[in-house]
Amino acid sequence: LAVIYRAQGNVKLAEILAAKVFASLQEKIGAEHSYTLSAGSSLASTWNELGRLKEAEELLDQLISVKVGKFGPEHPSTIETTAVLAAVYYNQKRFADAESLQTYILQVRERTLDSEHGFTWTSKLNLAAIYTQQHRIKEAEDIELQVVDFRKERYGLKHELTLTALSNLAMTFRSQKKWAEEEKALSQVVLGRIEVLGPEHPNTLTSIQALANNFLSQQLPQKAEPLLRKMVEARSRRSDYGPAHPSTLASRNSLAWTYFDQGKHVEAESMQLQTIAEGQKFLGESH
């Protein structure tokens, strides 16, 4: 059930359930049972998504230590949990540590699975994302283009794995100010995710925000405005965001500047006042 909640974008509900399952399994069958270790990895993944990175790292270190002793360092379960730790390092901006782990994971998967296995391609994509953050743009783009082509052929354009690869490629285009290429990739991602995940799924909303940012970078506020309006409305409605969530406030602020850039000063002022009012509710008046 926790997996379903995560797939639906309800990460907070997934975390509550995963924590209960992990605690229950520890008590009933022991901390080193394979079911317990799997539940722990799920909980750590959820913490990673929620930004509870220190807690995720500490739990993953414990799980990996047990799995290495129980299964060996190259067992698929051990490697899977190591991949979550690499993702935590990435979110902590510890890119050298993340690269070291992802390179190791890729080498193991190429040797034990196959160079064409789906997990191997996932490792390549993760490594490319790290390269982008390290400003190794050419290396990142080359890998991402390969992953996109592979996943399009194997899964089709509108599969979430393909859309994820396209989204990563768009980020690499953005780092090079390749606005037209980024716009084309993001447009495909937005349309695909609306169809596959729904218009208000967090991944869809993130893609819409990225496309709006692309239009703003191209000095096209008239194209960004309707996307940002959708963002504000959708995030205000969602229980895991709400009108005072930092992401909603950021979208409101961007929308206000979009109004201003088009000479819509009344709308801009109104939106900024709403943003300030909601921000004070969430952050306090002294923030």
CATH class of the domain at 1-92: Mainly Alpha
* Fourth-tier CATH superfamily name of the domain at 1-92: Tetratricopeptide repeat domain
- According to CATH, the fold-level topology of the domain at 1-92 is Serine Threonine Protein Phosphatase 5, Tetratricopeptide repeat
The CATH architecture classification of the domain at 1-92 is Alpha Horseshoe
Task: Briefly note the structural class of the backbone.
Answer: mainly alpha
How much of the sequence lies in strands comes to: under 5%
Number of helices: 14
Q: How many beta-strand segments?
A: 0
Structural description of this entry:
Among the domains are: 1-92, Serine Threonine Protein Phosphatase 5, Tetratricopeptide repeat (Alpha Horseshoe), CATH 1.25.40; 229-287, no CATH class. Helices cover 81% and strands 0% of the residues. It is built from 14 helices and no strands. The chain has helices at 2-7, 11-29, 34-50, 53-71, 76-91, 95-112, 118-133, 137-155, 160-175, 179-196, 202-217, 221-237, 246-261, 265-283.
Tell me briefly what this model is.
This is TPR-like protein. The chain has 287 residues and is an all-alpha fold. Helix content is 81%, strand content 0%.
SSE layout and pairings?
Blueprint: H1 2-7, H2 11-29, H3 34-50, H4 53-71, H5 76-91, H6 95-112, H7 118-133, H8 137-155, H9 160-175, H10 179-196, H11 202-217, H12 221-237, H13 246-261, H14 265-283
Helix pairs in contact: 2-3, 3-4, 3-5, 4-5, 5-6, 6-7, 7-8, 8-9, 9-10, 10-11, 11-12, 12-13, 13-14
Organism: Mytilinidion resinicola
Protein name: TPR-like protein
Pfam families: TPR_10, TPR_12
